[in-house]
Amino acid sequence: MQQLRDTPNLSNRIPLKGLEIDTIVKIRGLFNEGKEFPLAFEEYLSVGGESEATGMVFEWDDFEELREDCEESLEYTGYKMDRPYFVFDQLDSQYSIFFLDEDKEDPDIYILDAYAKKEENWPLYRDVKYTFSKMINDAIYRRLNNIPL
């Protein structure tokens, strides 16, 4: 997350700001049984977790709404996740997730799309060959070069 620290003025509306530790602890309690998240995500929350600059949600309670929406999609299509996961973003019916049972400081990113699986016989989730920090660095590059997120 060094690149994020080094680029504090990514958004002209909301300055780069991290979440307070008590808010991060609440998020851990809601989604990870109180355990710390992978290091890259922990750093993201503390450096820029309350900022729109990277294109992700930037209010901590939005994570709860994202998770509920994702679970509703899974329930509607009749699928269940067999692993613990964290939802951090959404585009249409596609959810960006990482798994909480992987022992990685920089988690791999997956796209979960229950509707595509039902309609097109795709896998429920697919590895996009990105890590969390690579995704954030790419978002910074796009923001700095006026490329839509």
Q: H/E element string?
A: HHHHEEEHEH
Number of helices: 6
- Average pLDDT taken over every residue: 84
Number of strands: 4
Low-confidence stretches: none
Rg estimate, integer Å: 15 Å
What would your notes on this structure say?
The chain is an alpha+beta fold and 149 residues long. Helices cover 42% and strands 17% of the residues. It has six helices and four strands; from the N terminus they run H-H-H-H-E-E-E-H-E-H. The chain has helices at residues 2-5, 21-31, 39-48, 60-77, 114-120, 132-144; strands at residues 85-91, 94-99, 108-112, 125-131. It has a four-stranded antiparallel beta sheet. A hairpin with an 8-residue loop joins strand 2 and strand 3. Helix 2 packs parallel to helix 4 (60-77). The mean pLDDT is 84.
